[in-house]
Amino acid sequence: MKLQESGEMYLETILILSKKSKFVRSIDVVEYMGFSKPSVSRAIGLLKEGGYVNVKDGGALILTKEGKIIAEKIYERHTFLTKFLLSIGVDEETASSDACKIEHDISEKSFSALKKHFTDKI
Q1: Residue 98 DSSP SS3
Q2: CB count, 10 Å around CB of 1?
Q3: 61 - beta bridge partners?
Q4: Which of 5, 24, 27, 88 is surrounded by the most beta carbons within 10 Å?
Q5: Does domain 72-121 correspond to CATH entry 1.10.60.10?
Q6: CATH of 5-69, one of 3.30.420.380, 1.10.287.130, 3.90.226.10, 1.10.10.10
């Protein structure tokens, strides 16, 4: 199953929240993303069916190995691109917003080249 941008965003959100708390629930995703409970519930169901997330007793959301790989890739792109945009003078809010848009569409080849060229400069 090819993950859409929204699925990647959910996985990234679960990863970010899991860095702050060992127990991440759907309601935490609702609050973080600002989406409705039914929307998050549907998305989590699809991610579970796709093998990206497991839901444990008590509602804890756990990324599977595949889910974690994707989440970490998207998170790395987001943080790098945000830092890059900040380093060239873009304000923080715009940098973060634009990084979120770019992170899903940039090719692996282009991202690797950017990272290689700019890592020591930002």
Answers
A1: helix
A2: 10
A3: 55
A4: 24
A5: yes
A6: 1.10.10.10
How far is the CA of 9 from the CAs of 33, 111, 119, in angstroms?
A: 9, 18, 24
Measured in whole angstroms, the distance separating CA 61 from the mean position of its chain's CA atoms is 14
pLDDT tens track for 88-117: 999 999 999 999 999 989 999 999 999 999
**Domain residue extents for the chain:** 5-69, 72-121
Low-confidence ranges of the chain (pLDDT < 50): none
Find tokens 């996985």 and name the residue.
11
Say if strands 53-55 and 61-63 run parallel, antiparallel, or are unpaired: antiparallel
Cβ(48)–Cβ(55) under 8 Å?
yes
- What pLDDT sits at residue 57? 85
